[in-house]
Design brief:
The structure is a homotrimer. With about 130 residues, the first copy, chain A, is α+β, with helices and mostly antiparallel strands. Chain A has a six-stranded mixed beta sheet, with helices on one face. The longest helix of chain A is centred in the N-terminal third of the chain and has 19 residues. At the A-C interface, α1, β3, β4 and β5 of A face β3, β4 and β5 of C.
């Protein structure tokens, strides 16, 4: 039976996604996805599936980037049995020559699945909303 | 009986407010308010009540504005029976000549009501905290 | 027995921390900490313990600073009986010559305790993540 405790655990999963990304922990980050979990990054990145490919991807993609802070908010979570969907906002902050700047802002469309190890991403689609045309 | 599930649904309502505003969906946005629900925007906007007037207002107000991203956080929700109050933070992002910028930041003071269709805004007061004097 | 209601109350405590700080209410802010509650601010501030010392500290530290908005997100909360831990993101906004700017961004590491008066901070450690080296 789904309950509020499930939404709480999903919120934690969503927060962990940012914490492990900003900590540059590719394997910890990839383990937030189920065995066939997909990360979908639009026309630029396409779909990447499975923890091994995801860890490789994030190690390469974030390996040479400046320190980042991901800020998340506006989480709307719907739990239905052993699956759930979520919509949420994200912003990526970096340090620029004149102080901190918001590099990108967008939203996530998530499908989640209850697994024996807890809630995991089945599919996370990352959308950039600003700047437009990225 | 109020329970944690109510807070979860209210959090979703608060997120939907931003999603539908940024999507420029006046009717979807106005439907988040109860039949006599009020949006209160200080001395500049005053109080606007009821979905029809609210949809008209937001269509005009946001019709010619640049694309936006609303970021929400710091949600404090109190449910008491079939009513609730909430305090939360908001920021409005837009694209500027030098990248993304935070145009305004403030807070919402909300009264909410349980309706047959789910939780709805009875009254949302929007406060701008920065820049000061806006 | 811990339940989802506990996480809800802890989220409210976390939001109140920012609201009372931005409102420059040293005593209300300090009352969010338990009797021996500690605020830990790294090598710059060290550890400050107890509501009286905390109220004094925040009155001095924020007494002459420009108006601020604290934005919080990414809250990951774990409740275990009468104690809890939390990880969350924070950003500090101020008004600059060219509009709003993000002065600092980081995270909080919290230990919380259930008291007769509700959940309180047992220990809040504030970390600055960007800019680096602050």
């Amino acid at each position: 039976m789904p309950g509020p405790e499930d939404a709480e655990q999903i919120r934690k999963l969503l927060a962990e996604y940012g914490r492990l990304l900003d900590a540059r922990d590719p394997h910890g980050w990839a383990a937030l996805f189920g065995d066939d979990g997909e990360w979908v990054g639009g026309t630029r990145y396409g779909a990447i599936a499975g923890p091994a490919a995801l860890a490789r991807f994030v190690a390469e993609e974030f390996g040479a980037t400046p320190p980042s802070v991901h800020i998340f908010g506006n989480m709307a979570i719907d739990v239905v049995g052993d699956t759930a969907t979520a919509w949420s906002r994200w912003m990526l902050l970096e340090e620029g020559p004149d102080g901190l700047r918001i590099v990108l802002a967008g939203h996530y469309d998530d499908s989640l699945r209850r697994t024996p190890a807890g809630w995991r991403f089945a599919r996370r689609e990352v959308r950039v909303d600003l700047p437009q045309g990225v």
